[in-house]
Every structure is written in C-alpha cells, then in structure tokens.
Amino acid sequence: MLLKCVEVSLPSSMKGLGHVNTAVSAYLMPLSLDAAVRNGCLGVLERKRVPESLAVNEALKLATEQGESEVAELLAVHCSDDAVEEALKYAALKGNWQIMAACTGERDVVELLRRVCDEKDVARSLEDAAQKCKWDVVEVLYQHCDTESRELGATLKCAIEKAKWDLVELFYPRCKEKDLVEALKVVVEQRQ
C-alpha cells in the first residue's frame, strides 16, 4: 500500500521505481498509524490500514494503552488474532472490566475487545487475571467464559488459594468434575 505523501514527495526520477515507493511507504506506515492513533485521526486509519500487518497490530496496542475505543474498534477487525488477544490481556490486567452504559476510555476498549475475541481468548485472560488476583476482572470475564474451558478450573483453584469464598461459590457449579477434585485437594492441603 502506497502512502499519498510518499507519492507526492518523491522526486520524478524515483516515481517510476515501484519498489522505492513501496519501501518508503512501508517504512513510514507504522509512524503514520501511531500518529493517527495518538491524534485520533480515524479518517487516516480507515484509508491506510493494512490487514494483519505489524503496523496495524502495533497501532492496536497503542490504542488500547491510550483507551482509544473508536480507534481500537476500527483496528481490531484487521489485526492478527495474537494482537487482539494481547490487547485483551493488556486491558484485562489494567482492571478495566466494569461494563456499564456510561463507561468511557479504556473500559470501552475492554468491552469491545471482549466482543471481538473468541471464547478461548477470554478464557485465557480469565485465568491470567485470576493468577494476578484481579478479582473484579475475573467476575466480568467469568460471565463470558465457555463452560468447557480448562481455565475455569484454574480460576477456581486461584480463588481457593486466595480464600475468595464468594467467588468459589460462583465458579464451582460450572467447573468440570476433574477441576473440582483438584480444587478439593487444594482445600485439603490448606487445612493441614
């Protein structure tokens, strides 16, 4: 994808060399996207995004860090699965999972990415948040987690280890039998 600024600024002698245009555009693209994210220029992003490219993945990361929900929504659709998952994890670890009508900034980004991600990404973020004791995040993610995921069992164990009994009561009905046995072992070890 060629940037208009590159086409205009290159000398006439270079315009015939397509590989030069491509190389200069590729070099400038991450900077252009980062600047567009920082300045909230959605029009630039709509025209200049390159699906599954490193530049778009980095721009999504930056948008998530800055809480730019409109930009993240635009970029998340065109990013790699790994980039979307990383953005989801980042938002989850920041503890911005309160989903309500009046939420703004990073919370909007978190809700958006939760909708864009598949259930496995949500489950991984659930386990990660439980291991880091982000219980408000865990409660929200739990509601959107597949009942067949192994991460529910790991989350139950974390809640038991940290004596979060209200969450244990919430989690255990959806856990598999194997996970409940493992959780009981943790309880027995704690009592000894």
UniProtKB/TrEMBL annotation:
The organism's place on the tree of life at top rank? Eukaryota
InterPro entries under this entry? Ankyrin_rpt-contain_sf (IPR036770)
Give the protein's recorded name: Ankyrin repeat-containing domain
Task: Please name the source species.
Answer: Phytophthora cactorum
